[in-house]
Design brief:
11 helices; alpha+beta; about 35% helix; Beta-lactamase; 4-stranded antiparallel beta sheet; 5-stranded antiparallel beta sheet; about 375 residues
Length: about 375
């Protein structure tokens, strides 16, 4: 029997937002988030293309959710939610079929939209693919085995799993209202000659805890994961993503990935794609990373990646680049309201593109939780009626 999300889930949302907002803002500088609806790839930095292939994973139309359809009892609630929460794109897949798709703010099914920190969940998946391909032996390998320029730094005792779970113990400040924070200085500090920009900055940071002892949200850690995957596979991250997922799974459009000052993908953010490809990635994860019957990641990778590796509140926490709010679902999250919600118990994927004026907001997170409850209730009613 499926248990609908209740007010207790909303309480957890409040707790986690309070918890994480004190220590980070999934920091990307967007001075006018509404403008993303017109051009979500307007970054000043260079971008690299993630090519798709000739064959598209078609998303067929499923039965609309009656309550949210024209004339349905919750049609206005959907309209209000999108308007009030500045939602530019909202897509629900169930059993791989489109059950609801809406656009606003000049967004459309052909426009690219920045993932922001949703990209962290993509990068963690590429770590799994690199292990499956034999480029990386294990998440228990030391980071310095793959990034030699980190040797002699506080990363000497850090393992790949610590980067995946943000438990390296390395000091990091992700307050982007502070010009002296690490997330701000990361893009402006001098780069050591001949060195990758991310590595150059991160190798100077001191440790403040032993690896595995402390969770500290750090976009820099996932940027390092991207460097590690590129180093291990001897190819840029965009090419590896294209060859492992974008082409074989059948993404509909080319994506783009923002680059740092030395031409490395910023793996912790800024992967631009269409709303439908956001949803396709969620569906790919729901299908356990299988393409043509074969998984591109090790057995049980997603079972591990989307389970609580770092408990942060009762019943929830952080996995390998994924947020877990309860035992039934997990989320990829980005500031300004980007999200991929995956609920295996309902075979449900929800992709959301938003243009929140704030990086994060308790009120807006609660609004999503409330609307998610409404969606789940309607789906559960349908199942009950068919029994």
């Amino acid at each position: 029997m499926r248990i609908p999300v209740t007010s207790s889930f909303q309480s957890i949302i409040v707790f986690v937002i309070i918890l994480i907002s004190a220590s980070f803002s999934l920091a990307q500088d967007i001075t006018n988030p509404d403008s993303l609806s017109k051009n979500s790839s307007q970054w000043k930095q260079a971008e690299r293309e993630v090519p798709n292939g000739s064959k598209v994973h078609e998303l067929s139309q499923g039965l609309p959710i009656a309550a949210f359809s024209p004339g349905g009892g919750k049609e206005k609630a959907l309209e209000d939610f999108m308007r009030e929460q500045k939602v530019a794109g909202f897509l629900i897949l169930q059993d791989g079929k489109i059950r609801l798709e809406r656009y606003a703010l000049e967004h459309s099914e052909s426009n690219l939209w920045s993932s922001l920190s949703v990209a962290k969940s993509v990068t963690s998946t590429l770590v799994g693919a690199a292990i499956k391909d034999g480029y990386i032996k294990s998440v228990d390998d030391y980071v310095t085995d793959y990034i030699p320029d980190l040797k002699g730094s506080a990363y000497d005792s850090v393992k790949i799993r610590h980067l995946l779970t943000m438990t390296t113990g390395i000091r990091w400040s992700e307050n982007y209202t502070d010009p002296n924070s690490d997330i701000a200085r990361f893009s402006t500090d001098s780069i050591e000659s001949g060195m990758n920009a991310t590595v150059s900055y991160m190798r100077r940071l001191p440790a403040e805890a032993e690896p595995g002892e402390k969770f500290l949200y750090s976009t820099g850690e996932t940027h390092l994961l991207g460097v590690l995957v590129s180093s291990a596979t001897h190819q840029n991250l965009s090419h590896y993503l294209s060859s492992k997922i974008w082409i074989p799974y059948g993404m509909e459009k080319n994506a783009t990935w923002r680059l740092d000052r030395t031409g490395q993908e910023l793996a912790g953010c800024c992967l631009q794609m269409t709303l439908r490809d956001f949803a396709r990635f969620g569906q790919f994860v729901l299908e356990d990373g299988r393409i043509n019957g074969k998984s591109i990641v090790p057995n049980d990778w997603f079972k591990t990646a989307t389970q609580i590796q770092v408990p942060l509140w009762p019943g929830g926490g952080y996995g390998y680049g994924w947020w877990i709010f309860n035992g039934r679902s997990f989320d990829a999250l980005g500031i300004h309201g980007q999200r991929i919600h995956v609920d295996p118990s309902r075979q449900l994927v929800i992709a959301v593109n938003s243009a929140w004026p704030e990086a994060d907001s308790n009120e807006r997170q609660l609004a999503f939780a409330k609307f998610l409850t409404s969606i789940n209730n309607e789906i559960d009613k349908e199942e009950k009626d068919t029994q």
